[in-house]
Amino acid sequence: MSATVLLRVEAAIEGITSIALIVVPGIVAWLLFGVELPAIAVVVARVAGVALLALSFGCWVAGRGSGTVPMFVAMLLYNVLVAVYFAFLGLQGEFAGQLLWPAVAIHVVMTVLLGVARSRSRPSSARPQT
Protein backbone atom coordinates (compact mmCIF):
# COMPACT_ATOMS: atom_id res chain seq x y z
CA MET A 1 0.00 0.00 0.00
CA SER A 2 1.41 3.38 -0.94
CA ALA A 3 2.17 5.96 1.72
CA THR A 4 -0.44 8.33 0.30
CA VAL A 5 -3.18 5.68 0.30
CA LEU A 6 -2.24 4.62 3.83
CA LEU A 7 -2.44 8.20 5.06
CA ARG A 8 -5.88 8.54 3.49
CA VAL A 9 -7.10 5.28 5.05
CA GLU A 10 -5.84 6.45 8.45
CA ALA A 11 -7.58 9.80 7.93
CA ALA A 12 -10.87 8.05 7.11
CA ILE A 13 -10.71 5.71 10.13
CA GLU A 14 -9.89 8.49 12.57
CA GLY A 15 -12.38 10.82 10.88
CA ILE A 16 -15.21 8.35 11.53
CA THR A 17 -14.04 7.94 15.12
CA SER A 18 -13.88 11.71 15.61
CA ILE A 19 -17.42 12.20 14.32
CA ALA A 20 -18.63 9.47 16.69
CA LEU A 21 -16.85 11.23 19.58
CA ILE A 22 -18.56 14.50 18.69
CA VAL A 23 -22.04 13.08 18.09
CA VAL A 24 -22.30 10.14 20.53
CA PRO A 25 -19.40 10.35 23.00
CA GLY A 26 -21.22 8.25 25.57
CA ILE A 27 -21.53 5.29 23.20
CA VAL A 28 -17.86 5.54 22.22
CA ALA A 29 -16.86 5.60 25.89
CA TRP A 30 -19.07 2.61 26.66
CA LEU A 31 -17.70 0.55 23.76
CA LEU A 32 -14.06 1.40 24.45
CA PHE A 33 -13.93 1.69 28.21
CA GLY A 34 -17.14 0.13 29.52
CA VAL A 35 -18.14 3.23 31.48
CA GLU A 36 -20.76 5.96 31.35
CA LEU A 37 -19.47 9.49 31.00
CA PRO A 38 -20.31 12.27 33.45
CA ALA A 39 -21.39 15.54 31.84
CA ILE A 40 -17.97 17.21 31.94
CA ALA A 41 -16.37 14.13 30.35
CA VAL A 42 -18.83 14.43 27.46
CA VAL A 43 -17.53 17.96 26.89
CA VAL A 44 -13.90 16.77 26.97
CA ALA A 45 -14.70 13.83 24.66
CA ARG A 46 -16.28 16.18 22.13
CA VAL A 47 -13.26 18.50 22.25
CA ALA A 48 -11.04 15.45 21.67
CA GLY A 49 -13.30 14.54 18.75
CA VAL A 50 -12.86 18.00 17.24
CA ALA A 51 -9.06 17.75 17.61
CA LEU A 52 -9.05 14.28 16.05
CA LEU A 53 -11.22 15.54 13.20
CA ALA A 54 -8.70 18.33 12.53
CA LEU A 55 -5.85 15.80 12.52
CA SER A 56 -7.82 13.55 10.16
CA PHE A 57 -8.56 16.43 7.82
CA GLY A 58 -4.88 17.38 7.78
CA CYS A 59 -3.95 13.81 6.86
CA TRP A 60 -6.58 13.67 4.13
CA VAL A 61 -5.30 16.89 2.58
CA ALA A 62 -1.67 15.78 3.00
CA GLY A 63 -2.59 12.60 1.14
CA ARG A 64 -2.76 14.73 -1.98
CA GLY A 65 1.02 14.79 -2.01
CA SER A 66 2.31 17.92 -0.34
CA GLY A 67 3.27 17.98 3.30
CA THR A 68 2.98 14.26 3.92
CA VAL A 69 6.05 13.95 6.15
CA PRO A 70 4.72 16.06 9.06
CA MET A 71 1.34 14.32 8.89
CA PHE A 72 3.00 10.90 8.76
CA VAL A 73 4.99 11.76 11.86
CA ALA A 74 1.88 13.13 13.60
CA MET A 75 -0.21 10.03 12.83
CA LEU A 76 2.63 7.67 13.70
CA LEU A 77 3.09 9.35 17.08
CA TYR A 78 -0.67 9.43 17.66
CA ASN A 79 -1.03 5.71 16.95
CA VAL A 80 1.92 4.73 19.15
CA LEU A 81 0.68 6.79 22.09
CA VAL A 82 -2.94 5.66 21.80
CA ALA A 83 -1.94 1.99 21.45
CA VAL A 84 0.28 2.18 24.53
CA TYR A 85 -2.28 4.06 26.61
CA PHE A 86 -5.21 1.86 25.61
CA ALA A 87 -3.12 -1.28 26.29
CA PHE A 88 -2.23 0.15 29.71
CA LEU A 89 -5.94 0.69 30.44
CA GLY A 90 -6.77 -2.80 29.24
CA LEU A 91 -4.09 -4.42 31.36
CA GLN A 92 -5.33 -2.56 34.42
CA GLY A 93 -8.75 -4.01 33.67
CA GLU A 94 -10.77 -1.19 35.17
CA PHE A 95 -11.63 0.58 31.90
CA ALA A 96 -11.97 -2.18 29.31
CA GLY A 97 -15.02 -2.16 27.05
CA GLN A 98 -15.85 -4.49 24.17
CA LEU A 99 -13.84 -2.54 21.61
CA LEU A 100 -10.78 -1.60 23.68
CA TRP A 101 -8.54 -4.48 22.57
CA PRO A 102 -9.65 -4.27 18.92
CA ALA A 103 -8.80 -0.54 19.10
CA VAL A 104 -5.36 -1.41 20.51
CA ALA A 105 -4.84 -3.87 17.66
CA ILE A 106 -5.91 -1.34 15.02
CA HIS A 107 -3.52 1.29 16.42
CA VAL A 108 -0.64 -1.21 16.57
CA VAL A 109 -1.28 -2.31 12.98
CA MET A 110 -1.49 1.31 11.80
CA THR A 111 1.74 2.10 13.65
CA VAL A 112 3.53 -0.74 11.88
CA LEU A 113 2.06 0.12 8.47
CA LEU A 114 2.89 3.81 8.83
CA GLY A 115 6.42 3.00 10.00
CA VAL A 116 7.04 0.63 7.09
CA ALA A 117 5.55 3.03 4.55
CA ARG A 118 7.62 5.89 5.95
CA SER A 119 10.85 3.91 5.84
CA ARG A 120 10.16 2.82 2.25
CA SER A 121 9.39 6.36 1.15
CA ARG A 122 12.67 7.80 2.45
CA PRO A 123 15.37 8.26 -0.17
CA SER A 124 18.16 5.69 0.12
CA SER A 125 20.69 8.47 0.82
CA ALA A 126 18.72 9.40 3.95
CA ARG A 127 18.97 5.90 5.40
CA PRO A 128 21.77 5.19 7.85
CA GLN A 129 24.76 3.32 6.45
CA THR A 130 25.49 -0.09 7.97
UniProtKB/TrEMBL annotation:
Keyword Transmembrane attached: yes
Membrane-crossing residue ranges in chain numbering: 12-33, 39-62, 69-88, 100-117
Keywords on record: Membrane, Transmembrane, Transmembrane helix
Taxonomic superkingdom: Bacteria
UniProt-recorded name of the protein: Uncharacterized protein
